[in-house]
Design goal:
The chain is of the alpha+beta class. The chain has helices at about 5-15, 135-175, 190-205, and strands at about 30, 35, 40-45, 45, 55-60, 65-70, 75-80, 85-90, 95, 105-115, 115-130. It has a domain at about 5-130: Immunoglobulins (Immunoglobulin-like). The strands form three sheets. A six-stranded mixed sheet has the order 2-11-10-5-6-7, with helices on one face. A three-stranded antiparallel sheet has the order 3-9-8, with no helix packed on it. Strand 8 (about 85-90) and strand 9 (about 95) form a beta hairpin. It is rod-shaped and about 100 Å long.
């Protein structure tokens, strides 16, 4: 059967199906779900009534924009606008692949049954961005902390060495209490050498 004719038939069945009961969400169990960007997720609603026959299940964005129609657990059609990333799943579910942030929102499943009419369930899908703190992130953070520790250790070592050498310098350049000549006084050896030089020049001048 031509897929477009099948889609037309499904839509006709959906809009012309005699709804004998009011829409009651309590007979459907639908749970909100979260998934990561780039992953796949399967949305399902579970009909809690066993005394009714499912004639059709449709999925939309809780508005008039429909995604898929199913007339049985194994037979149905996904509208062409969504066929690249949406496929039918077991138990009247749909699977959305390659999720992106724009896929977040409400999804409604509408169960048409006989003889109890229509039941609607709502699922909120939240698509989460991937955690930026990947393995590379932790590697970079660890490397940065390691570099900071090395810099801190080198800085502390340099400060300690500078402080130590400063103490040695001031210790060697300070006044000594023993074995030192009085300030501003020449050494006796230097004085003797100076006197001998003076006498030598006196003798030379005398002979001249």
């Amino acid at each position: 059967m031509n897929p477009y004719l099948r889609l037309f038939a499904l839509q006709v069945m959906f809009f012309l199906f005699p709804f004998t009961g009011a829409e009651v969400e309590t007979f459907l169990r639908a749970e909100n779900i979260s998934a990561m960007v780039g992953s796949s997720v399967t949305l399902k609603c579970h009909l809690l009534r066993s005394d009714t026959t499912i004639t059709q299940v449709s999925w939309n964005f809780c508005n008039q924009v429909y995604i898929a129609f199913q007339i049985s657990d194994t037979e149905g059609i996904v509208l062409q606008d969504f066929s690249e990333r949406v496929t039918l799943a077991k138990d009247y579910g749909i699977t959305i692949s390659q999720l992106n942030r724009n896929d977040s929102g409400n999804y409604c499943c509408i169960y048409n049954t006989f003889p109890h009419g229509s039941f609607t369930g709502k699922i909120f899908l939240q698509v989460l961005s991937k955690d930026p703190r990947t393995q590379d992130y932790y590697v970079w953070v660890g490397s940065g902390l390691g570099i900071l520790l090395v810099v801190a250790a080198v800085g502390a070592g340099g400060f300690y060495y500078k402080k130590k050498t400063s103490k040695i310098f001031y210790s060697n350049s300070g006044p000594k209490t023993s074995g030192a000549n009085p300030p501003n006084m020449a050494s006796p050896a230097l004085m003797t050498s100076s006197d001998e030089t003076s006498e030598y020049f006196n003798v030379v001048l005398y002979h001249m």
